[in-house]
Amino acid sequence: MIRNPIPWPNGARCAVAFTFDMDGESLMHVHHAKDISDRIVGTSDLRYGPEVAMPRLIDLFAKYDMKQTFFIPGWCVKNYGATIEEVLKGGHEIAHHGWLHGSLRDMSDDQEAEDIARGVEAIVAATGEKPRGFRAPSYTMSHRTLGLLQDHGMAYEASLFGDDIPYLVENERGYLVELPSHMPLDDWTQFVSFSDFGYRQVIKAPSEGFQLHLEEFDAMWEHGGFWCSIWHPFVSGRLARAMQIERLIKHMHEKGDVWFARMDEIAAHVNGLVERGEWEPRRHTLPYWTKADT
């Protein structure tokens, strides 16, 4: 069903990335800056992510010797130093997720440039290295974003939904590897009901979320795809859901021939294939449309 399957390392059937957006209360600072001091209940929920869930998740991945990627706003990198140290000690990647989880589409040119630059600076200060990848907060990638990521020397982007395997997003300056997912693999769509953001839905049982991820994985395994899940620690780091994540990991190991990798490793693999002429990915020029096209 995938016409142009990508050759994965060591003959693996598929690639798997458990990615996490550790937003902390950056969300509250964006949406409720004026009265955040009175948003105590919601803030306590968001702080559960970096303070309780993250150590639990890091221990879980250590148990299975898995290195994964955490997309973290620069503000959280700066304010949760102990958590960042644990992520790095575990061998995981810290990738860019904006400065304060603001909507890039709603920013001016200068505002978005500053937002991305501040996030880069925070990650460099904490890790000693520039981030290699980026996911736009709330998937709000703008027409400027690709160029700004190129300005900072990034290798991959992870906000889009355009394929079942990696592809390239490019402009006149060159390309970045796109490492796509899709909304059903974002735990927000299944488990979040948050009054502070006016977001209410019927929450699924953890076992239902497991079944969705299981079936999506089995399809990727069958056809050679790229399974990239998007989790939020304050959501899926809760005990019952974390247990289902481990159940999912066990299923993947039982299936076998799975390449578990950090996002920067997957991007490097794709780049290597392209540079050696061993595989030709699909290419998307961004933005897809401009005002002049209407």
Describe the structure.
By secondary structure, this protein is α/β, with parallel strands linked by helices. The chain has a single domain (14-284), classed as TIM Barrel (Alpha-Beta Barrel), CATH 3.20.20.370. It has helices at 26-31, 40-63, 74-79, 81-89, 109-127, 145-151, 188-191, 206-223, 233-236, 239-255, 263-275; strands at residues 14-21, 69-72, 93-96, 133-134, 156-157, 167-171, 174-178, 226-231, 258-260, 283-285. The strands form 2 sheets. Strands 1, 2, 3, 8 and 9 form a 5-stranded parallel β-sheet that branches. Strands 4-5-7-6-10 form a 5-stranded mixed β-sheet. The longest helix has 24 residues, at 40-63. 41% of the residues are buried.
Short descriptors:
11 helices, 294 residues, five-stranded parallel beta sheet, five-stranded mixed beta sheet, TIM Barrel, alpha/beta
How is the secondary structure organized here?
Layout: E1 14-21, H1 26-31, H2 40-63, E2 69-72, H3 74-79, H4 81-89, E3 93-96, H5 109-127, E4 133-134, H6 145-151, E5 156-157, E6 167-171, E7 174-178, H7 188-191, H8 206-223, E8 226-231, H9 233-236, H10 239-255, E9 258-260, H11 263-275, E10 283-285
Parallel strand pairs: 1-2, 1-8, 1-9, 2-3, 4-5, 5-7, 6-10
Antiparallel strand pairs: 6-7
